[in-house]
Amino acid sequence: MAKVIFTAWKSKSELLDVRNEFYPTSSCEGPDRRAHGCAVVEAWKLRGNVPHHVEATALLTDAILHDDAESNSIFSIRATYSAAFCRFVTGLVDTKIHGVRRTMFQRAMDLGLPASFVELRHEATHREPPSLVVLRKAAQRSLEWLWDNYWAGIADASYAPVLDHDDGASVKAALEDALQPLCGADADGQAVSKKRKRDFGVSVAMQLVSICNVSAGAVRLLSEVLLERGVLVPAGRKLGESLNDSFREWDPVLQRVAETHPSFLRHLTEDMVNDLAFKNPADAAESPLSEAMYLWLSHILTHSFWEFHRQSCPQSYVIQACDESQHHFTKLLSRHLKKQADGFKKAPSSRSATKNRVSKDKSTRNGSSGAGFQLSEKLQQHGWGFVEKWDNRPLGVVSSN
């Protein structure tokens, strides 16, 4: 006998429509529909039988939409994020609801849920709400987890491209389609605003990761597509212009791919330095593209934002390539990386640095330092001075004198 399953939606197309509103596709050109998706899920809850993953997606998305300091207080924003995140985690790992009783960490391990989610849920429930930075990051990671563990499993041929594992052209085409929302212009040639790019950043990163999961060669091809399309460098950029806006826009996307596929960062840095060192024009010092490659490599290989991921970067190869093909920007990059490496070698150990700092503090307090003695003189002119004998009477004790 066939098993009957009741759902809150009439057809799978309705569920897919809501998914596309929560996770916009690369071809989406209309307004932001996430608020409408939250309203639809709220209506479905009145009918019942709404999966927890669908409800949690709506709650987390609504919390992100609530994140507006001009309209809402910081406390209410933190409270909304905390409530949505706790509801998401508790609905998954609370074994009191159903099944054999196990600890939340054991249940999270079974589901593939990061243990940090359970820890953050405990903190938000029993202590002060976490900071906005932590909550925003947790909400994004939660939506990514929900995509990988629920939404991506809903069959939809029109959403996910059918990839031929042996056909690099089809993989490249899929990667280019996924990158389209961040390429600077939509299908009509209209410039995409910075706010819209930020909204699509998480969705684009997840699509790139999904493609790389399906095709083994996609990680290598993604680096080629990024450089061939020139999406990491603003169109019409002139020599000397900053790339800080591009760093802020692309760092989260590139890091999301590197977290899942560490080899991606190795391919990207190798391709960048090859373009910089071996494909440079004769007048590389006056080339905006060569300068952009130098700035990107310097950012990835030296900025603290990429410190955790740099272990997969071939820094020795980058230095060797720069030394073999020397021009203005390769000399700058090689000198910068060698200086950083020498700084790490010469840096004192943490114990000796702490000891030196303590000794310096003591000498300053005792007046042996010239700067400390001058400072005490200035303070003494205003009635300040060192206490020769400290009176450690408890608070509330009245002296007989």
Explain this structure to me?
- The chain folds into two domains: 12-153, no CATH class; 168-346.
- 62% of the residues lie in helices and 0% in strands.
- The longest helix is centred in the middle third of the chain and has 21 residues, at 194-214.
- 28% of the residues are buried.
- It starts with 11 loop residues before the first helix and ends in a 20-residue tail after the last helix.
- By secondary structure, it is mainly alpha-helical.
- One of its GO terms (cellular component) is preribosome, large subunit precursor.
- Residues 341-375 are annotated as: Disordered.
For the structure shown, list the relevant keywords.
2 domains, 62% helix, 401 residues, mainly alpha, 0% strand, single chain
Give the structure's gist in a few sentences:
By secondary structure, this protein is mostly helical. The chain is 62% helix and 0% strand.
Give the helices and strands, then pairings:
Layout: H1 12-22, H2 34-47, H3 52-65, H4 74-93, H5 104-111, H6 115-126, H7 132-149, H8 168-179, H9 194-214, H10 218-229, H11 244-260, H12 263-278, H13 288-302, H14 315-324, H15 328-346, H16 350-365, H17 370-381
Helix pairs in contact: 1-2, 2-3, 3-4, 3-7, 4-6, 4-7, 7-9, 8-9, 8-10, 9-11, 10-12, 12-13, 12-14, 13-15, 14-15
InterPro entries: Las1
Pfam family, one: Las1
GO molecular function: endonuclease activity
